[in-house]
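Memo to structure team: turn this sequence into structure tokens by end of day. - J.P.
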Amino acid sequence: MPGTLGLIGSGMIGSAVARLAVAAGLDVVIGNSRGPETLADLVAELGGTARAATSEEAARAGDLIVAAIPLAAYRRLPADALTGKAVLDTANYYPERDGLLTELDEGELTSTALIQRHLADSRVVKAFNTITPHQLFSLARPADAPDRSALPIAGDDAEAKAAATGLLNVLGYDAVDIGTLADSWRSEPGTPAYIAPYLGEVPAMNVDDFLRWTQRAPGIAVPAARIGELLRAAVRRPAGEARPPSED
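Reply from structure team:
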């Protein structure tokens, strides 16, 4: 397991991962596009094992990296600083936010394969993209807990997927291996494993109201066997066709 987790992105998912990592005893270096000074409150909340940095500094410092940024910002990931690193990508494709991406709309690439192309010398793994931030934090459980949930991962590099599995385990989750990055569409928005299993029935509402609602929702434990069933039941649709509310 990494002694230091590098986090690029301090939004809701990034902050939830950081809190779990600090609670698990990992050192956390967190950076964002706005600069370390904007992270003072978050780092103070996280405690002494966390420090703020630039995105490039976080990339270089981390033994394992979590990139928790909107897909539209993927070109800002510091490719040189991430050379040789395993990078966990949390992004989902939402055309109304990210703009239309023809390669994704036509099924030529998955969103994480697009990021892998940018990070040609890194080993990218899809992870943390199917669960809302509050539930990611609240559903974490020890390895022997009977109500432990699972999250899907996908990647082309076996060693990087093993690192992702190890991180998930330390943070409180089992991992279900989808397969390669080309298979990662099975966990994209609109598929059975995306968000709904961890929340149950979701009332119709806009994005802001949805995120506030998830703060009050207790969440539902979803074991690995069930996640596996949902992944196998997925039917590929045009990327971005389903637009459920979410926030990276």
